[in-house]
Amino acid sequence: xxxxxxxxxxxxxxxxxxxxxxxxxxxxxxTVQPHFPRPFQTLQAGSVWLRSxxxxxxxxxxxxxxxxxxxxx
Length: 73
Description:
- The chain has 73 residues and is an alpha+beta fold.
- It has 4 helices and 3 strands.
- It has helices at 13-20, 24-31, 51-61, 69-72; strands spanning 10-11, 41-43, 46-50.
- Strands 1-3-2 form a 3-stranded antiparallel sheet.
């Protein structure tokens, strides 16, 4: 009782770093930016975010990553 209902899949720091293509220190820098979504919930083991909110942030605020040279050939 009293727990928020989860409106969709959740992701933790590891999944977010993969989605962003960044390491731990850059991840920390990004999460304090004003446009990055607030965690859905902070647990004893750490914070979790709504995957849809993180994907919206990536779509709206991240520059597309350049294609690998192998992909261009």
